[in-house]
Fold this protein.
Amino acid sequence: MPDHYDAIIIGAGHNGLVTAAYLARAGRKVLVLEARQLVGGCAVTEEIWPGYRVSTASYLSSLMQEKVVRDLELRKFGYAVDAKDPAFFSPFPDGSHLFMWQDRAKTLAEIAKFSKRDAEAYPQYEAHLEKLAVVAESLLLTTPPNFPPTMRDLPEYLKLLGKAKGLSRREVVGLIKIFTQSAADFLDDWFESGELKVTLATDGVIGANGGPRSPGTAYILLHHCMGGVNGHRGLWGFVRGGMGAISNAIADSARAHGASIRTGSPVAKILVKNGRATGVALQSGEEIYSAVVASNLDPRRTFLKLVDARDLDADFLHAIRKFRSEGTSLKMNLALSGLPEFKALPGSPGPQHRATMHICPSVEYIERAWDDAKYGRPSHSPLIEMTIPTLYDPSLAPAGRHIMGIFLQYAPYSLAASNWDDLREPYSNRILDVIEEYCPNIRKIVLERHTLSPLDLERTFGLTGGNIFHGEMSLDQMFVMRPVAGWAKYKTPIKGLYLCGSGAHPGGGVMGAPGHNAAREILKNRR
């Protein structure tokens, strides 16, 4: 007799695990199927060199929803985050540098080095962003209403309008602007210092298929400002044990309530009969049955790889094929014998090493980097973001050694004149060349390196096009339009089949919101 479950979750990324944990806590018999030999999707810790436990893909935490942490009792299962301080360190070619700290007074003193006017404006900017973030954050755990709306949907839309209650006229205008403007235009309204603007603008392009002057990147900036660490808004932190500790805590919570998790079990097909999902077939040939199937894979992989096209409406299938999912991000991991020495601030260890370290001297620099990517070339002078988690958690590496994570924009998935298998190593050398301009000792301290191009992100983590958000987070692919108009409620045209990953609202980042929302809809619909 074949196994039968109340719900099968395809993919043990953190969102899939969140869905499984909520369903298991509600008494459902749940099975999670994961192709890799470990859980976590992009939120994993792997020993890629002996003694070094590396957050190979995702590398910082902030967006994880506190409600999910509480509901699933994740702290009981080992989840702990150390807030990053300083937040940012930006060195500049002229030898100057800018720190941004948790302590506002220290941050304002740093900003005043470049502009006293900006130092005066910064508290108002933070307060403005905070107001907008509260409104946007209130949507994260909300199921989007139907679109296009009918009269029956009017109450849901009125509730959405109610979330903006209390905003001033300027803040309402700011809300519209942040969803439509470029990050550069948004920041130009507030500041004059190029050093401050570029430090803030990086959050607007992380994972984006666009430059700081591309419309819509202001929302990406807000998206990265919405989280917090240990109840303190706007902070980012390092997870003790690496990013895999988040996923392991969620998995342990799910198992504690009876969920089963099978690794090394890639799904080949979603089984459909008479328009309803009935289970899955594994690549091994095994079939497993369930009344509900929830896919944590991105929309294109779910519907174009696992579902027979004959089981989907032609218009829906066309919309999914048009869903933009190519990425421009590259991740490099280094094992270091020491710490990088910055020309702009010699000495180690120093506060600069505890921060997110930016190599991007101006907004124009980032825009030129994007110009390369638009035409299928990896940026000759890319935006580089570096972190050293071992300064917060020394257990991740052998004594006296360090791990450095490098996140890079822009490395386009589709190349005009080469392929990533040929370009990976030469481009890795170019990345070190750029870092060496700011940290002359970098090559002397690199012991090992590990580079994940967008193609590698697709191959290793199943991200179509290497897109770290499961699909572009542009205005036409967000909220009521994610993944496509008419299907933003986690349900799909196939009855019993749901999306629970970042390709559904509210999008990418290690936040658990899509998994939480999908579980709520599954339980509501099953009632």
DSSP finds 18 helices and 22 strands in the chain. The domain at 4-46+60-80+241-323+465-526 is CATH 3.50.50.60 (FAD/NAD(P)-binding domain).
